[in-house]
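sanity check this record:

:::
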Amino acid sequence: MDGVLVNNMGVHFEAFAEMGRRYNISAEPGKDFSHLNGRGNEDIITALFPEWLVKEKGVDGLAAEKEAVYREIYAPKIRPTDGLVDFLARLKEEGFVCAVGSSGPKDNVEFVLERCGISDYFDVRISGDMVTRCKPDPEIFLTAASKLGLAPEECVVFEDAVAGVAAARAAGMKVVAIASTHTAEELAAKTSPDLIVNDFAELLAISH
């Protein structure tokens, strides 16, 4: 979802920076955040926040607060990525079933789908609080495939994160990398997708 349905990684950075200001700590991801993209909040919170704060507030408490800040910041400016709505409409027209699989919490998934007006395009929604292991583990994608009634080899995953591409590969699925969070060159160097595109508008143009 993040970086694929919406180009929102910068907003997550803003939310972490706001959390840092609230607790008078340095919680900005910086340039070394890329290895955490696509991972669950437990991995991210414990990597970015000091141990004393994690013990005091708890991972779940800090994660819930940060995600509420993220949604507040993003609500006025959220929009789907270029070409996404047309791509989803074409998939629906041609009889494909779709799932969203995110390491983020359910509230974030519903927030993005509803605010972007794309809820009706998704038959299944899997969030990080519905699984025990987040990306790069393949559990999210395997769960989505199971709920769609499909075998992994029948599925194509769209991912922007290195951990997400690794999870798709581990699930035995085809994967299209979207160069939003990383450049196409970085994705080619760090991952092994079947295809790399800049956005869904480019993918539509290729498919025509």
Notes: The domain at 84-207 is CATH 3.40.50.1000 (Rossmann fold). The longest strand covers residues 174-178. The longest helix spans residues 59-74.
